[in-house]
Design brief:
Elements: E1 6-12, E2 25-30, H1 36-44, E3 62-67, E4 72-76, H2 87-103, E5 107-115, H3 122-134, E6 138-143, H4 150-165, E7 174-176, H5 185-205
């Protein structure tokens, strides 16, 4: 998959500051330090498009990036689960994100990122189940797959599948990724292209 043309557009403090909903959007969301910025840079092939940081919780706004010459938006959402953030700030972020996820009509899929190395975290499962209750489409993206063996990757992903299967009749789309090796880049880009084609067909029929 060739690199894409992508550029920063705007940072919004809440859903009211987002661009007009004329393009399909794909949000990337996960716990702080899950490797979200690195994954965004890997998917687009644009170095430092999303700024990586050694300090978790740095992203505090809804950051919009235009991709493929204004064909779709990639939206970088604030991370969650960072203990050193004040309770007030955390509640504010949660409110902003909930409103965005529920109200944004042009949001096609949310990519929920989880660290491949760890067992299912309570906060991740809470988010996943909330998305299901709201009827919001999402994908599950396992990051940092290069940090452990392939056997361990399969085992940990299977653990997640088994836990979700206790409540879910159908599992969401799942991607295994590594920003270091590029694993998952072609699959995610292909998935987004397919969704964009379907979105264009629906718009054309209206």
């Amino acid at each position: 998959m060739n690199n894409r043309r992508a550029a920063f557009v705007i940072s919004a403090a809440d859903v009211t500051g987002c661009p007009q909903p004329r393009l399909p959007e794909y949000a990337f969301f996960g716990r702080s330090n899950v490797g979200k910025s690195s994954l965004i840079n890997m998917i687009t092939g644009v170095k430092n498009l999303a700024r990586t940081s050694a300090t978790p919780g740095k992203t505090q706004l809804l950051n919009y990036y235009s991709v493929d010459e204004d064909t779709w938006y990639l939206v970088d959402l604030p991370g969650y689960g960072y203990a050193k953030v004040s309770k007030k700030s955390r509640r504010n972020w949660e409110k902003i994100i909930r409103e965005y996820l529920v109200q944004r009509t042009s949001l096609i899929y949310t990519f929920i990122l989880v660290d491949t190395r760890h067992d299912p975290q309570a906060s991740d499962l809470e988010l996943i189940n909330w998305m299901g209750e709201q009827g919001l489409p999402f994908c599950l993206v396992f990051t940092k797959a290069d940090k452990i063996s392939r056997k361990a990757v399969k085992r940990n992903v299977d653990v997640y599948k088994n836990v979700l299967s206790e409540k879910w009749e159908e599992l969401p789309p799942i991607f295994i990724t590594s920003s270091h090796s590029g694993e998952g880049k072609a699959e995610i880009n292909s998935f987004i292209e397919q969704c964009n084609t379907q979105y264009a067909s629906v718009i054309a029929e209206k």
